[in-house]
Write a structure and sequence with these properties.
This is DUF3669 domain-containing protein. With 365 residues, the protein is α+β, with helices and mostly antiparallel strands. 35% of the residues lie in helices and 13% in strands. It has a domain of 84 residues. The strands form two sheets. A five-stranded antiparallel sheet has the order 1-2-3-6-5, covered by helices on one side. A five-stranded mixed sheet has the order 4-10-9-7-8.
Length: 365
């Protein structure tokens, strides 16, 4: 695996690519608009994204979160994927999940870069900060957005939702580990980072087994090839990229057909909370905590404290089987750490470590 010195600001050959991405300094007339925000920072792009558009993720939300770590971990996973693609034994593991290309890290004090871009942000956001520039995940089409609105938005809010400019930036969080508790449609409906639970996916006849298999393979790659805990990563549904021209760092992926959402892929993003993971029992404990700390993207097993439905348990079994298979393929049959994937699964099936810790603390009071 490459060391961190290889993840510095890329060489000048990125400049012509940036021009086609709508972020080059000569592209002064198109303002940036916010397409999302999280605990680490806000995310910006140009209006009406086309082919090969990029996004700027600003480190402007939480001083404890780092876009540089996001950049390092993003590049680390891409390097792991590239290595796996070189072998016929492992190349198939990289085909189900799309990952944005990672273009550039820019510091707050790089005045030349900021001098030609700062004015394209709204006035309240014209303070330089650390940023990363990555490939933009394409938003869903108007047809797909209207399908989601008609299915999950309350009738009284549908027209407002359909005409909302912010709803054009629609990607869907794939929560295979959670069911919707309240079936009532929402009146106030927001499509950016729309959280879709597994029961809603099934209402749309989406291939949840494909998603579970894809997540299992990617988790195995992150743990045993990139050697990281995968803490707080996100899996979203979104259309496939329109071209691979500037996305040579990103893995190819299989496209999923849907009469409701149209052609789409499972994408992975957001790596700012990820940490390096040792290949021992301490690393397994770290991965176990990260699994349950994350939003419920992965299927969840039945445990002593939370019994899942038969259907949900079956999806967990699919995830588990593929995770163990993919882990064995990555590590190889002669690996001296080949027992770690099974140990991790056993810990996950024992329950949420954060809840277990609280329960144990209560019994010792």
């Amino acid at each position: 695996m490459d060391n961190d010195t290889n993840y510095a600001i890329p060489s000048q050959d990125i400049a012509p690519k940036m021009a086609s991405l709508g972020l080059h300094s000569s592209n002064k007339l198109q303002p940036f608009h916010c397409i999302g925000s999280g605990n680490c920072g806000s995310v910006w792009s140009i209006e009406n994204p086309g082919i090969n558009t990029s996004v700027i993720k600003r480190e402007d939300m939480n001083e404890a979160r780092s876009v540089y770590n996001d950049f390092i971990m993003h590049r680390k996973i891409l390097s792991a994927i590239q290595e796996l693609r070189l072998s016929p034994e492992t190349v198939s593991l990289t085909s189900r999940v799309s990952m944005p290309a990672c273009h550039q890290y820019v510091r707050a004090d790089e005045s030349t870069w900021w001098s030609t871009r700062l004015g394209r942000f709204p006035k309240e956001c014209q303070a330089p900060c650390n940023v990363i520039v990555t490939e933009r995940i394409p938003p869903f089409s108007q047809t797909a957005r209207e399908c989601l609105i008609n299915r999950f938005c309350a009738p009284g809010g549908r027209e407002t939702a359909k005409t909302s400019a912010s709803n054009r930036d629609c990607i869907v969080r794939a929560y295979l580990g959670r069911r919707k508790l309240n079936d009532r449609p929402k009146r106030f409906f927001k499509l950016p980072n729309f959280p879709m639970n597994i029961d809603q996916m099934k209402q749309l006849d989406l291939d949840v087994e494909h998603y579970a298999t894809a997540m299992a393979e990617m988790l195995a790659i992150m743990h045993w090839k990139a050697q990281m805990d995968a803490n707080d990563v996100e899996f979203v549904l979104a259309p496939p990229r329109l071209t691979h021209e500037v996305s040579t760092q990103a893995s190819p992926s299989s496209t999923i057909k849907s009469i409701h959402l149209g052609d789409h892929n499972l994408w992975i993003l957001d790596f700012d909370c990820c940490g390096d993971m040792t290949m021992d029992t301490n690393g397994v404990d770290q991965a176990w905590r990260a699994f349950y700390k994350n939003d419920p993207y992965y299927p969840r097993p039945s445990t002593a404290n939370r019994v899942k439905s038969v259907e949900d348990q079956q999806l967990w079994d699919i995830f588990k089987a593929r995770f163990l298979e993919a882990s064995e393929i990555i590590l190889g049959p002669e690996s001296n750490i080949g027992h770690l994937p099974g140990l991790l699964i056993s810990k996950i099936e024992s329950g949420n470590p954060h809840i277990i810790q609280k329960l144990n603390a209560g019994t010792t009071d």
